[in-house]
Amino acid sequence: MKIQNKLLIALGIFLVSAIRSYAQEPLSLSDAIQLGLANNFDIQIEALNVEIAKNNNTWGAAGRWPTISFSMSQNNNFRDVQNAANPFQPTGLSISNSLGPGVSVSWILFDGFRVQINRERLQKLQELSMGNAQLVVENTVQAIITQYYFVKLEQERLDVLEKVFTLSKDRYAYIKLKGELGSAVTFDVLQEQNAFLTDSSNFVTQEVNYLNARRTLNLFMGQPINTAYTLTDSLEIDPTEYDLEVMYDKMVTSNTNLMNQYLNLELARTETRLAKTELYPRLSLNANGSYDLSRQDLSQAQFPDFGDAGGNTRELVTNQTTSNYALGFTINYLLFDGGRVKRNIQNAYTTERISQLQIDQLKLSLRNDLISTFDLYNVRQKLLSISQENIRSSELNLELAEERYKNGTINSFDYRQIQINYLNTALDNAQAKYNMLDSETELLRLTGGILNEYENLN
Questions:
Q1: Which helix (H) or strand (E) holds 105?
Q2: What span, in angstroms and rounded, lies between the C-alpha atoms of 171 and 406?
Q3: Which domains does the chain have, with CATH numbers?
């Protein structure tokens, strides 16, 4: 048992020194957010998605410009005629070659304003992609803020448990010495030993919780998992008085989720306009040109002998060129397709109504979230005030109890109970401060002001 006690004491001292040695580079909340904005993987992925949307947002992708294609064909023909039925036909091997480059142009001149509508659609898709990226940024900033303060919360818990652990260690050493001198009974020694072991276990567990919280913060910031920082911002908060209706007005005009839903409604309206373009005729221009070069080689062919026909000679290798050009217009107009276009238009109108209903639903849901968070913020503000008063009295009571215990005014049971009360009060106070910061951060996110708040930190 003595060996176990010594090991626990050594472990506690080692944990305290190890945790302190981990803290290296100072890190403010503003610095943590900057690291996250620069290195968070979700933000980087969304930035690349925005790049894709920007690349797609061109007049070429919308269909304004013509399609021009180039083609090239080359043919070789070998013909060997034996025992020709026609006496005037040459026999033997004849070779012909041809080379034909060509260019074709297709250009839609009018398609029911589809090009302009397509470009508007691509613009809205780019804006929606940027809105989604902003949403990811806001969520990441909120995650970094809450996790930063959660690390501070775990650190305060660790400090409280360290203090209780140190008191238990000192008290256990004190009562053990009294036992060795014969002034303390075995029951008191065992009780203090049990308290010391319990506080040691709590301290070891909290040390792991603190390290895990710090690793999660590094994950949000895109930093190596085991990087150690000294968090310089305090968990303290100055409560702010908010007006619910003013916050609701901000939410309606600035909430990113709602802004994205407005863009979805505009996209649905664009799809309706695109469906209507099929009611218009389609006019297109088609042009093509080709140049054919032909060569015929009859040098290996045999010709019928009809005697001297006045000294005429035959050209055994001939070349021929041909140029072809064409220009035309095509107009298409849909007369009947079984009601497909009409159904598409009706479905597009229905999609618009769905998008509008989703906006109304989201507004109602956001208002509910805002009111709930606002009420929770006010309740937590009152709880924080109560907790702060409670911790001050608990700290004073613990100091007085320590003196009374050493003087023998109170017994170990009473002192331990006061110590546990202080522990619970200190942990509740740290949790109350974190809860206030968490509620305020959620209020800022709902009203679309979390990025503005971050800018105020710089």
A1: strand 91-110
A2: 9
A3: 2-65+112-281+337-457 (1.20.1600.10)
d(CA 9, CA 289): 93
Contacts of 280 (CB under 8 A, 6+ apart): 110, 111, 112, 113
Q: How far does the chain reach from its first CA to its final CA, in angstroms?
A: 55
Q: From 153, 340, 352, select the one nearest 236 (Cα to Cα).
A: 153
Q: Is the pTM of this model over 0.85?
A: no
Q: How far is CA 386 from the centre of its chain?
A: 39
CA 155, 157, 163: angle at the middle one, nearest 5? 105
Give every CB contact of residue 118 below 8 A, 6+ residues apart in sequence.
Answer: 61, 62, 63, 274
Q: What is the token pair recorded at 457?
A: 């930190």
How far is it, in rounded angstroms, from Cα 412 to Cα 408?
A: 9
Model confidence pLDDT, tens digit, residues 26-85: 999 999 999 999 999 999 999 999 999 999 999 999 999 999 999 998 888 887 777 666
pLDDT in tens, 258-295: 999 999 999 999 999 999 999 999 999 999 998 888 88
CA distance 129 to 241: 35
Q: For 27-44, b where at least 16 C-beta lie within 10 A, e where not — what string?
A: bbbebbbbbbbeebebbe
Q: How far is CA 34 from CA 211, 447, 449, in A?
A: 22, 22, 17
* pLDDT for the residue numbered 187: 73
Q: In whole angstroms, what separates CA 289 from the centre of its chain?
A: 51
- How far apart are the C-alpha atoms of 169 and 5, rounded to whole Å? 10
pLDDT in tens, 345-360: 999 999 999 999 999 9
Radius of gyration of the chain (CA): 42
What is the pLDDT averaged over residues 18-32? 75
Q: Which residue reads 């919780």 in tokens? A: 209
Please give the structure tokens belonging to residue 183. Answer: 């002034």
Q: How far is Cα 99 from Cα 71, in angstroms, rounded to an integer?
A: 11
Within 10 angstroms of residue 347's Cβ, the number of other Cβ atoms is 13
